[in-house]
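Appendix B. One record, verbatim.
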Amino acid sequence: MIAPLILVGFAVIASALGQHLLSRASWVHTSPHWGIWAWQALTIAVAGAVVLVPVTLAIPLLPISSRLAELLQTTTFHLVEHYNTPGGGWLALLALLLAFLLVSRIGWLAAANVHRAAHRRRKQLDALTLVGRDHPDGFVVVEHDVPFVYCLPGRRRRVVVTSSVLDLLSAHELTLVLAHERTHLRVRHDIALALAEALARTFALLPLFRQAHDEITTLVEMQADDAAQDIADRSALAHALVTLTTGNGALAGASVTHSNQVSLARVRRLMSPAVRPMRVRHATALGVATALLISAPLGLAIAPAVEAATQDCCSLTD
């Protein structure tokens, strides 16, 4: 019974502490690539812990128990004994059903997001063949009075620009905006956002996942900003963003609409003095820390099995 309780404690502490630290860490916006990864690692670790709680309760009923016992060179009896709960078989059965439902919901929502996005992209691409015209610089122009720029990821990926953008932006500003959108396509920010949305919908009652989705939505835009310009271009990109947003347009990579709050955060960041990116040793430490964070739930879940193997070994020796 100890493993499920420890996993619950880990999920609560990691969720509260991780959310608090990441919300206040300046490096998250300074190095948005690592910020995205940190938020993803935190949500994956907490989601993994939540899913593993019913899994550890259901281990006495799972066929994997005999395989795990064989791997650890112990007996199935000793292994199951370390995972038994006062609720017995009924609790294990309910826990197994809950684990299946959680994993199924995450997979279903992620697949549904990808399918829905792909369906929207196909419809827009079909429409672009009728109303859009290819520009020599590699994007599609649509005649419209509202300034708007967005990208469509996938195999037939496109950057779409309305005709009014060509009149509002200078050639250099347009180049920066296009580079921003192409970064979304190259890095596949749509996948990161699909996963964040699936987790936020699955664990809708936990504030961590809603905030992680909002933060990742902002950070993918900041990462694309960084890839689109150097220090000398920051003000030019900020001016382009203000021009588009005040004209009822938006810079949107993963979605067509963009909140004013995200746009304001991006403009403030671009207008502030550039900050040196995260140093290699700090990035290495962060990578190791997030790897340990993701693997921690699995380690806590199998800890009783390792203990069973150790006790069994000692008893045989005696």
